[in-house]
Amino acid sequence: MKKIGVFVLFLCLITALAACEETNKEEPKTIKEAVSLYYGELSELLIEDDEKRNKLTSTHQESTISDDKFISRETLLDVYETLDDDTFDVNLSMYLSYYQRLLNQLRLKLENDTTTKKTYEGNLETNQGTTVLFKVTLTEEGNLVFDYNDVLSNGKDENAFVASIKMGFDDNDFYLNELRHIEEINGYDYFEFIEQQSIHQISYSNENNYQYKADNLKTNQYASLLVREDFNKNVESTVVWINSDNQTRTTLRNGINQTRQLALYNEHGMVFTYADELDGPINLWFELLEATGWDRAYFDTSDDLNVGVYKDGLRLFSEGQYKDFNSNFDALNKQASYGVFIELAENELSNDILNLSAYQLAFYDNKVTKEWVSSVLDGAYTEASSLMVYQDVDFTKASTILAFFQALTNE
């Protein structure tokens, strides 16, 4: 029994030591060490992200589209079923590659530095391609802070801003944020990345003009809110909600133009879309490779007399039953799709349309129904709102946002 007790104690000690090693990064003591540490961390994150994405990317080769305008469903499926969709994956390089380049510039400037200094002042290139003076500081907590001034230009107007970039570790997770303050209009831009947790992007001009975006890196869910005021002082808001649980992307637009859009995905890509507008028609799109009941498709979509899918030589969509077809097939480059657009009035929508039985087809195991569409659309705003509360600030309430930025500025 004593031996077992000693062995258990030994295991506990080893586990505790391992946990300490995992949770405690060695704190940099000089600015050169900090730059090297954070450059290595960002590079590792981006290499892992690139490797994951390269697995989903096929090498481009010459097209092998046949001159035959008819292609069988089996031939299309052979390619379609090899497709890997990455709609719900976050492309980290899109967010972090600039900061990696910034660190690399500083790393090269400090390459021959043998001092123990904790500050640096010199010119570096920004993500706008301008070269400006940066003041870089290593804090007592081991964080690296970049302070600089620059000008934001849209080709017509120019606005000067002051900015601060901060990076470090929090409970062993790398984090990075940047705050910009456009003093002339009292506007703000904020970006924050926390490894394996979240990405936030916020732009604010005033209560009627701002944008909020949030990626949950744990669940692969995404929410955004765009509020804009037009020249006639009409305020419009657009909410986008990407839900990896049911593999949908929903867009809700409110204002003078009220529209709702829903897209359904699976492991191969987008398979169904729904769109409506106030007092307007409903527009549907179906990926027919997810439908059964047809055996070949006609690939000249400009030929209105023959376009469509066929069963035993008979065309299944007659004139007036569809708005348009779209198609794409390239076996070597892994491209395969055959879709149909359908437009109808709200009172014409039925489950027979949504499961395509009205056209002698069966679509997506009858999972798309009127009830399902209504459920997704009706629940999207509430579900998206769960990602719109950040640091105890509800970004759906415009009056609270300026105080959020003022608090960040005072930190």
Q: Which sheet architecture does the biggest sheet show?
A: 16 strands, antiparallel
Q: Please report the number of helical segments.
A: 7
In spatial order, strands of the major sheet run: 2-3-4-5-6-7-8-9-10-11-12-13-14-15-21-20
Going by helix content, strand content and strand pairing, the class is alpha+beta
Low-confidence spans: 1-23, 56-67
Strand content is: 35-45%
Whole-number tally of structural domains: 1
Terminal residue distance: 56 Å
Shape field: elongated
Question: What is the residue-averaged pLDDT?
Answer: 89
Query: Got a strand count?
Result: 24
Helical content class: 10-25%
Multimerization state: single chain
Secondary-structure map:
Blueprint: H1 2-23, H2 31-54, E1 70-72, H3 73-80, H4 92-109, E2 119-125, E3 131-138, E4 144-153, E5 158-170, E6 173-182, E7 187-194, E8 198-206, E9 209-216, E10 221-229, E11 235-243, E12 248-254, E13 259-266, E14 269-277, E15 282-287, E16 291-292, E17 296-298, E18 308-311, E19 314-315, E20 324-330, E21 335-344, H5 351-354, E22 362-363, H6 370-385, E23 389-390, E24 393-394, H7 401-410
Antiparallel strand pairs: 1-17, 2-3, 3-4, 4-5, 5-6, 6-7, 7-8, 8-9, 9-10, 10-11, 11-12, 12-13, 13-14, 14-15, 15-21, 16-22, 17-18, 18-19, 20-21, 23-24
Helix pairs in contact: 2-4
Quick overview of this protein structure:
With 411 residues, the chain is of the alpha+beta class. It has helices at 2-23, 31-54, 73-80, 92-109, 351-354, 370-385, 401-410; strands at residues 70-72, 119-125, 131-138, 144-153, 158-170, 173-182, 187-194, 198-206, 209-216, 221-229, 235-243, 248-254, 259-266, 269-277, 282-287, 291-292, 296-298, 308-311, 314-315, 324-330, 335-344, 362-363, 389-390, 393-394.
